[in-house]
Amino acid sequence: MLRMEIALFLVVAFVAYMYFSAEKERTALHRTFSVLLVSVLVHLVLDGSTVYTVNHLESVPGLFNDILHRLFLGSMVVVIFLFYQYIAILVHEETGKGRRLDWPARIFLIVAVLGNFLLPITYTVTTEGNYSSGPYMYVPYAAVAFYLLLC
After folding, report:
1. DSSP string, 71-134
2. Is 23 exposed, middle or buried (0-12, 13-18, 19+ CB in 10 A)?
3. DSSP code of residue 24
4. Residue 53 class from Cβ within 10 Å (0-12 exposed, 13-18 middle, 19+ buried)?
5. Which of 5, 16, 78, 150 makes an SS bond possible with 48, Cβ 3.0 to 4.6 Å?
6. DSSP letter assigned to residue 58
7. For residue 1, what pLDDT is reported?
8. Residues 3, 43: contact at Cβ < 8 Å?
9. Cα 83 to Cα 107: distance, rounded to the nearest angstrom
10. d(C-alpha 81, C-alpha 86), whole Å
């Protein structure tokens, strides 16, 4: 699993390097894509870190593990929001229609991040590997559903 995160990180890092080294206009769409690329890289680092910490529950302090998992899922919610923003800006540029759903999207982002950091977290230990669980896990699912609905 960790090898997959590393490989994906390298691919996204290469795309980011190519993107940032190219000459381009400074539009809202490009700024959003830039932030999205950096956010995905941070998210992948957090993902790999949580894979390690959750499978070493006995040696990693519980508070550190909780914080890392909450940052990981919080970054997932931010990445989902940024994908929505990218789509909204793209549609706006192509059609010229206003972006009237930005406020609900931002309010939901705040609620989702708060839910991610405040809802209970537990860890399930199995012979095939450990994973985090609990109500906080539903936040990214709700974010995907909500932002797809807005799209």
Report:
1. HHHHHHHHHHHHHHHHHHHHHHHHH----TTHHHHHHHHHHHHHHHHHS--EEE--TT--EEES
2. exposed
3. -
4. buried
5. 5
6. T
7. 66
8. no
9. 16
10. 9
Q: pLDDT category, 2, cuts 50, 70, 90?
A: confident
State the Cα–Cα distance between residues 73 and 52, nearest whole angstrom. Answer: 15
d(C-alpha 78, C-alpha 140), whole Å: 9
Residue whose structure tokens are 């790999």:
48
CB burial of residue 46 (10 Å; 0-12, 13-18, 19+): buried
- Cα 103 from chain centroid (whole Å): 19
Residue 70 corresponds to which tokens in the numbers above? Answer: 């909450």
**Residue whose C-alpha is closest to residue 77's, from 39, 118, 33:** 39
Label residue 56 exposed, middle or buried (CB < 10 Å: 0-12, 13-18, 19+): exposed
